Amino acid sequence: MSLQELIGQTVTLTVARKAEFGYFLTDGNEDVLLHINEADREYEEDESVEVFLYVDSEGRTSASTTIPEVAIGKYAWLKVVDSNPNVGVFLDIGIKKDLLLGIDDLPVHKSVWPKEGDMVYVTLRVNNNYLLYAKLATDPVIESISIKATRKDFNKNIQGHIYRTAKVGSWIYTIEGFKGFIHESQRQIEPRLGQKVEGRIIDVKEDGTVNVSLLARKQESQDVEAERIFEYLMSRNGAMPFNDKSMPEDIQERFQLSKGAFKRALGKLMKEGRVYQEGSWTYLKKD
């Protein structure tokens, strides 16, 4: 088997000779360059070296003593370090050359592409030209590393990364190891692939997977909505032409809230003595 056919894998080679810019390693039939920037220390001729094989930016088979966590058939969480809207996003695997997760493997809508700092669970694949690419984990792969939630986990706060996106919802792998689903009704905006999100478990299914909500708990949500209304009042010098009898469509257009949510938030502000209503207007209470 040629060294080219071992791209994306770890092999043990022998130092054939030193060069000013690195070392030429051999398997007895072929040589490959271990550039000095990819070597973890100095090596002597005839010394054995464990290296990871990849294709450099010039299209040459190259070696690195940095052994990535990810390999052919082996998955790992990798950090997004860059993106190009024409080709895809780039992942850090530890070596000098970043790994491409190509446009064909990413969501159709670029608004949910991973951004720098996001984490994706991938393996390596090699194309017909022996170039390395990332391949996203599928549901069965996530299933294989997940653990089953129990009824005791219901209502728990969780964190995790999005591993799959769709219009109907998003799929999450939590820090605990749960595999979960976030229905579109349980998120204000669609999270990105690879984005770390926080939510809570709203259902534990019979198979041990969970349903997750990214929406704030009712009290937290009410607090946020009340502050939004209060800030709007402040921006209008303490008066606004809205009250608890305003038309639902007017409330939705101005505050992006349902009438029920608006009334609860406004009621909270009134109970706290921060605002009062007069006619069809609401006013800030002066001290």
UniProtKB/TrEMBL annotation:
Question: Do you know which InterPro entries this protein is assigned to?
Answer: CvfB_fam (IPR014464), CvfB_S1_2nd (IPR048588), CvfB_S1_3rd (IPR048587), CvfB_S1_st (IPR039566), CvfB_WH (IPR040764), NA-bd_OB-fold (IPR012340), S1_domain (IPR003029), WH-like_DNA-bd_sf (IPR036388)
Q: Which domain of life is it from?
A: Bacteria
Q: Tell me where the signal peptide lies.
A: none
Where would I find the S1 motif domain in this sequence? 6-66, 153-215
Q: Record's family? A: Belongs to the CvfB family.
Full protein name:
S1-like domain-containing RNA-binding protein
Recorded source organism is Neobacillus driksii
